[in-house]
Amino acid sequence: MMLQFTSQVQKSLTYARYAMVIILLFLVKTGFSQVTLTATSGTATGSFSTLKGAFDAINTGTHKGVIVIKINNNTTETVSASLTASASASTSAPYYTSVTIYPTTTGLSITGALATPLINLNGADNVTIDGRVNATGTTKSLTITNTSAVNTAGTSTIRFIGDASNNTVQYCTLKGSSTDAAAGIVFFSTTTGTTGNDNNTIDNNDITCAADGSRPLNAVYALGTTAKNNDNNTISNNNIYNFLSKATASQGINIGSNNSGYTISGNSFYETASFTASAAVNYNVILISAATGTGNGFTVSGNYIGGNTALCA
Fold first, then answer.
1. pLDDT (tens place) for every residue of the chain, 313 residues total
2. CA-to-CA distance for 13 and 271, rounded, in angstroms?
3. Following CA atoms 313, 108, 38, 132 in sequence, which dihedral angle do they give, to the nearest 10 degrees?
4. How far apart are CA 290 and CA 257, in angstroms?
5. 8 A C-beta contact, residue 36 and residue 45
6. What gap in Å lies between CA 12 and CA 105, rounded to an integer?
7. What b/e string do you get for 264-293 counting C-beta neighbours within 10 Å, with b at 16 or more?
8. How far is the C-alpha of 18 from the C-alpha of 28, rounded, in Å?
9. Cα-only R_g, the chain
10. Which residues of 182-302 form beta strands (DSSP E)?
11. In the beta sheet, which residues pair with residue 129?
12. Which distant-in-sequence residues (6+ apart) come within 8 Å of 24 by Cβ?
């Protein structure tokens, strides 16, 4: 009887272990993937190891409608996460009305070392990247970093291109080290479309270098397309710090040709420690080009320049 009882107990324990493994595998596949997605049309849910994986599934039309992407754990992007424009008909791919991205816990990151944009909004509209946990509160809990320090054209952390409009990036820490003089950590780029990259908002972010020894040439850069200006973009309430290259001419916000109507307000520009240039170069905290094609209607107000933390403290 004792031997039979022991054998039954051992079998029960074995079954319990198998059940636990199955449950754990299910949790890893569903609730604990780095990136999870819900959609109101098409396939309702998805799980991915990278943000690129989620964007690719949207681009192919797998997920449609109102889409929410949750960052549950750190991701490493080995290829640019590029989201294309929504189609005009629900039967086409991709088709979405909005995409919202936010972390589900504190201290998360999306990182890569790419000689391209890390996140590329290519004609995408109505995208919100919100660094607050579950998109509530005021704490910045998502860091997005492209550590590449090359001067390859387009190297950036977040790029708006191809008529990307009505997008918002808020409450994130954005880091980059691009040495492309015609790009930046945040990059408003050109278009082959019809209107330019318009009505985008960069608000309440920390924007800084990926490493102090590897600083970008522009924290924010904008260069539009002739007769298709990037219009009415807002850069507001950001902390832009440790952004000047010690050996190369560099800018905080650099608005080049074929842009108009920007609002640049409430930003703090500063160095967290004493800054000593290692070459005789020009620095601009805010530079708006006088080049042909640059429009009017710029509002620059209430910015803080100096100190070693926000608000000139």
1. 444 544 554 555 455 565 444 434 444 444 469 999 999 999 999 999 999 999 999 999 999 999 999 999 999 999 999 999 999 888 889 999 999 999 999 999 999 999 999 999 999 999 999 999 999 999 999 999 999 999 999 999 999 999 999 999 999 999 999 999 999 999 999 999 999 999 999 999 999 999 999 999 999 999 999 999 999 999 999 999 999 999 999 999 999 999 999 999 999 999 999 999 999 999 999 999 988 889 999 999 999 999 999 999 9
2. 60
3. -20
4. 7
5. yes
6. 37
7. bebbbbbeeeeeeeeeeeeeebbbbeeeeb
8. 15
9. 23
10. 186-188, 201-203, 206-209, 218-222, 230-231, 234-236, 239-241, 250-255, 259-260, 263-265, 268-270, 283-288, 299-301
11. 101, 169
12. none
Six-digit token string for 132:
């607050």
Q: Residue 25 corresponds to which tokens in the numbers above?
A: 């595998």
Supply the pTM of this predicted model. Answer: 0.90
